[in-house]
Amino acid sequence: MNSRSFPLAVLLAISFGNPTAMFAEEPPLTPKQTTQLAEMIERDWEDRPPWAEMAVMILKGGPMGSGKGWFTGAARRHTWPWLANRMPEAAKDGRITSEEILQLSKQDFDRLDQDRDRVITEADFVFEKNPMMEDDSPAGSIFSRLDEDSNGRLTSEEVQRWFKQSTKDSDFLSVDDLKIALGLGPRPPRRDRDSSDPRPDPRWKMMGMFLDGEMGSFSEGPALDSEAPELDLPLVAHREEGGLELTDEVIRLKNYRGSKPVVLIFGSFT
Q1: What is the C-alpha to C-alpha distance for residues 128 and 81, in angstroms, rounded to an integer?
Q2: Which residue in 43, 115, 131, 133 is deepest, having the highest Cβ count within 10 Å?
Q3: Residue of 230, 216, 227, 218 whose CA lies nearest to 267
């Protein structure tokens, strides 16, 4: 057995040989062995599929979020080459000004102009480098906390609900109140787990959820330009006291297909 297949064999043996051991009550490996297994897979399996990337992240105890594990960026149709092919004369110098793309409103142009240099270039289409896309950035953490429906847009209603919930019976927030409301208080120092730690290793509980399909499907998702399947989804509404609830109203994709743009967001953990 070569070095690449050995860690995979270990992982498969653990997963299928003793499925109950995948949960926190019966960790199949010690904390140190768990970390070593993750490092072996990461080092020796360079062309690993997305599910293996997710397994490595869980076994290493890494943070969940955009760009981590199998939560990678989506394939895109609208890229700089796509825009340049449609506007070859304007893009021949590698930059497009607002005067050269009158189809965009000033608001839309400014939103696309990520580096705020008043021109659109190929760099503006590299969205992974936008700090707002990083879940572990301060701005991303605050945005995710206030964006109740996880639609990527923060409305005045969401901000007002958050402020009302955070202030309780007061009409203002102190600095300490704000830190607590945004989860920005001091974190306890992280320490490495060892075999003497009586607490169950949470990584194996996560692995159990992962293998049970609770963290996503192992099947490939729809490819770019694939036709979306028919969907009948209940409408989600905001409660006055905060949070979301399902309604009796149903949204049917067939009622919108071909008549107006529809954005489908899958796998949003809230």
Answers
A1: 17
A2: 133
A3: 216
Which residues, at least 6 apart from 242, have a Cβ–Cβ distance to it below 8 Å? 148, 161, 164, 165
The continuous run of DSSP H or E covering 75 comes out as: none
Q: What is the largest CA-CA distance in the chain?
A: 68
Q: Other C-beta atoms within 10 Å of 66: how many?
A: 15
Residue 104, Cβ neighbours under 10 Å: how many? 15
The token pair at 79 is 């890229």
Give the Cα separation of 226 and 44 in Å (integer): 34
Name the residue among 11, 139, 146, 125 with its Cα closest to residue 66.
139
- Per-residue pLDDT for the chain (270 aa), expressed as one digit of tens each? 455 555 555 665 555 544 444 455 677 778 888 888 889 888 888 888 888 888 888 888 877 766 778 877 777 888 899 999 999 999 999 999 999 988 888 999 998 898 889 999 998 888 654 444 445 567 777 887 788 776 678 889 888 888 888 887 788 888 888 888 877 665 555 455 555 555 667 888 888 888 877 777 777 777 788 888 888 888 888 888 878 888 999 989 888 888 888 887 765 544
With beta carbons less than 8 A apart as the criterion, state whether 196 and 203 touch.
no
Phi and psi angles of residue 115, each rounded to the nearest 5 degrees, phi first: -90, 5
